[in-house]
Amino acid sequence: MHGIPDGYRLADGDLVSIDFGAELDGWTGDAAISFIVGTPDAADEALIESTEKALAAGIAAAAEGARLGDISHAIGTLARGAGYGVPAGFGGHGIGRHMHEDPHVPNEGKAGRGMRLRHGLVLAIEPMLMAGGGSHYEVAPDGWALKTVDGTRAAHAEHTVAITHDGPRILTIP
Question: What are the residue ranges spanned by the domains of the chain?
Answer without folding.
Answer: 27-170
